[in-house]
Amino acid sequence: MKARLCVVAGILAIATGAAADPLEVTDAWVRQPPPGANAAAYLTLVNPGATTQRLVAASSDACERVEMHRSVVENGVARMRALQAIEVPAGQSVVLAPRGLHLMLIAPKPLQEGDRVVLRLALDGGETLAVDAPVRAGTPHGGHAKGHH
After folding, report:
1. pLDDT digit string (tens) for 41-77?
2. d(Cα 73, Cα 35) in Å, to the nearest integer?
């Protein structure tokens, strides 16, 4: 009887912990790429929980694959570095934005301003979040930023 209670308590603890304070996503958008170019997705990851969460993969039916990148400038040259994960510390937010962290949509289908792209974000705990991101030309405020062309 005691062993059964421990198993049930363990299952409840796991279920409660997984359901509490999920990662939140805001301000998602995809930059419309020129024909034949990759696209970039931007968003904000918000962690209201008490433990660090990690984004470990992303995917979308709108492209061949999605990679996590960080833009860096080395010796005056902008480059992208692939990432294995993006950590979101407890109680904090991480912004994916032009010239910084971003999701690279490799070999996207033709995307036009106003289209919607569903991004599936995989967390290291096994949870997957579906995010609906509008396609926009330039930056979210109507300008045009450099990069990813």
Report:
1. 999 999 999 999 999 999 999 999 999 999 988 898 9
2. 26
